[in-house]
Amino acid sequence: RCEPLSEGVNIKWLAMENMAAMQEKYTFAQTVFDTLVQLYNLEDASRLQELIIEETNINREFNKKEYSRLRQKKGIISYRQFESVISRYQMEVDDPQASLVPWKKYFTFSRDAEFIDAEYSSPELIALLFDIDLQTVKEWHSDLQKVSLSTFVNNNGGDYNARKNIIAGKKFLEESECTVSFKSAGGQYGFRFEYIKGEAKHFEFYGTK
Predict the structure, then answer these.
(1) Please, which residues have CB within 8 angstroms of residue 85's CB and are 6 or more apart in sequence?
(2) The pTM is what?
(3) What is the rounded CA–CA span in Å between residue 191 and residue 206?
(4) Is residue 190 within 8 Å of 196, Cβ to Cβ?
(5) Taking a C-beta distance cutoff of 8 angstroms, is the pair 103, 85 a contact?
(6) 3 has which bridge partners?
(7) pLDDT tens for each residue of 44-75
(8) How would you class 52 by CB atoms within 10 Å of its CB: exposed for 0-12, middle for 13-18, buried for 19 or more?
(9) 12, 56 Cβ separation under 8 angstroms
(10) Burial class (CB within 10 angstroms; exposed 0-12, middle 13-18, buried 19+) of 170
């Protein structure tokens, strides 16, 4: 099964506050994060964001002996890795709410995602992206004969072009996240990888007996 890789906000954008060329992406990522913090009443948003930024490993150099498994992979490259960040936060802060947040509806977890492929985004993210009522977006999203996203946004009080610097627009992004699962010797196994412009990379293998 393969799904669009860039349908959400790249989680690494939260670590780009001091990068002038990335301010628009950082600002929107921060807006999304702050919105989720308020919606789910997280106890210590600052600490959670610190952990996320630490694991994205952007603009930092660490002693090799101190590298964690995630740092060795140069950032958060999958949701499974992001879940470990959430688990660490929950253990430190004792905040079970963090696991209730539907992070995958809003964020993507690949260092290669440079734009939001908004045509494939969740209704929740589209509503935030273009400041449109969520129910209105859901109705458009479920319409099998729906108009294009740009037409929908402009017809409902939004400004599609105002987000041109952070969305893919009409450009086709050759970026997918693929997963494969199989059974063998009584166990369930699988692997995931990113298929980007004809190249498969960032493999992760997992399995349970």
Answers:
(1) 51, 52, 55, 70, 76
(2) 0.79
(3) 6
(4) no
(5) no
(6) 177
(7) 999 999 999 988 864 444 334 343 443 444 56
(8) buried
(9) yes
(10) exposed
